[in-house]
Amino acid sequence: MVMNKPDKYLLGLVLSGTLLFASTFGVATAQTLDQIALVVNGDPIMRSEIVNRMKFLQASGNPSASVSAAQLQEAAIDELVMEQLQIQYAQKAGISVDDATLDETMQTIANRNKMNLQTFQAALYRQGISYVQFREQTRNKMLIERLRNQQARQQINISKTEVNDLVSTRTDQLTAGARYRLAHALIPVAEQASVAEINAARQQAFNLRRQTLAAGDSADLSAWKGALSGWKAAEELPAPAIRALALLENGEISEVVRTPTGFHLFKLLESSIPPAQAASNENSLRNQASQFLGERKTDEYYRAWLQSLRNSAHIDFRMKAPE
Fold first, then answer.
1. What is the pLDDT of residues 288-320, one digit of tens each?
2. Distance between CA atoms of residues 292 and 301, nearest Å
3. What phi and psi values does residue 291 have, to the nearest 5 degrees?
4. Is the pTM above the cut of 0.85?
5. What is the DSSP string of 65-100?
């Protein structure tokens, strides 16, 4: 089972061995520091929350990196502010996590740490972590993930063209071990050809493709003159040809393909890959491409959206930076 982002974060807190409350900061110290450090849109963030987040960031960062206390505090405050803003927005949008779902998630986290819920609570207690606080922090992480998903559904669109373009860069996965029987037409272009000559050759290739498509099954392929004949392994063909052939079905004609020798057309007569397997491979690759594009677009959009949320927030700082 693939862990979602909240689970990965929460498990990191549990497994790091240096959790939010380190032994060097006892209960009395935490209480002494428990003052309002800043207020985000009317909601307070306590000084102890910042100290705890600083310790986690320090423990989870690069041990060899030299980071000043001021830099660490700034990073901790930034994380906490962004979390608070997202929680506020999620609550206003009516996004919630009910207790039953939260209890199920807590049980899942305990199971992934090879514990039952009782031993998991005891493990948190030994690290100085309140189970109640950890549970509510888990709820907040789930709220944020649901907010992110909602924003993505409303704003992210992935076009068929985008998927096709990405799939075309992964055609080696579709054509590995494939062999093709092809009809091939080449409109040659001299190395020193003028722009006008290149354009004329391109137009000739487009015209030939249109004529062949219009003729359908009765098309006379004798006009197709090229160097290819018989069966060809995918690796014997130029990369542009492989990209053109990867998504063709038997009997289909490729788009016009440009290579240094000129403009090409390929008609796929037969492939060594069974149609069912080819369809399965293509569907799998398209699903992967769609998922990749969705994640990338979601991250890009959500980062920009969070920045606008931060820019419009009212933040009242009440804690000075460390010396």
1. 888 888 888 888 989 999 999 999 999 998 876
2. 14
3. -65, -45
4. no
5. ----HHHHHHHHHHHHHHHHHHHHHHHHTT----HH
